[in-house]
Specification:
With about 180 residues, this protein is mainly alpha-helical. It is about 60% helix and about 10% strand. Helix 1 packs across helix 4.
Length: about 180
């Protein structure tokens, strides 16, 4: 998801590394903070793959800074990742939110809707944090107040997300493709 975040934020505008790190941290830092040890090697990989350009500009103080921007290949790669997200990017809530942050970059409402339908289908499958006899445990049968809390909050979140997905899909389906 780090690479998707890098590509997604740079799709909008060139940024220097610190600005990029701040935006990624704001998006998912409270759940999965990004370290320099992860960010800068990812930037290097994307640059070597021809997806990013780097240029040096004078800094606000004496130190110069590297400004990152997407290449045409980087834009194409981002759109490809958005069109065909991995299954884990659909099933994992935080990864899906990262995907949502950049889904607007797909120009075709039908492609956007296809991604949302995958999430909708995932949410339609019964699941739980806990299982007994191969069946998902419901909040009412959790056995303790803490697990019950986890399951009730997850259920309420899923209900609202399903409602939002239905609304978003209706809006997308009402828009003509570009």
């Amino acid at each position: 998801m780090l690479e998707l975040s890098i590509l997604g934020f740079l799709y909008d505008q060139p940024l220097h590394g610190y600005e990029l790190k701040e935006r990624i941290t704001a998006l998912s830092g409270h759940v999965r903070p990004v370290s320099d040890g992860a960010l800068y090697p990812a930037i290097t990989r994307l640059t070597k793959a021809g997806l990013l350009d780097q240029r040096t500009e004078p800094g606000a103080s004496a130190a110069p800074r590297r400004v990152l921007s997407l290449t045409a290949e980087g834009r194409a790669d981002l759109l490809s990742r958005l069109r065909a997200p991995k299954d884990v990017e659909i099933s994992d809530g935080q990864r899906f939110f990262t995907l949502l942050a950049f889904l607007r970059h797909l120009p075709d409402p039908a492609e956007q809707a296809a991604v949302l339908r995958r999430r909708q289908a995932f949410l339609g499958t019964p699941s739980s944090f806990f299982y007994e006899g191969g069946e998902p445990v419901r909040a009412e049968g959790a056995g303790d107040v803490f697990r019950e809390g986890m399951l009730r909050v997850a259920r309420a979140t899923a209900v609202e997300e399903k409602r939002w997905l239905a609304d978003a899909l209706a809006q997308l389906e009402a828009r003509p493709g570009d």
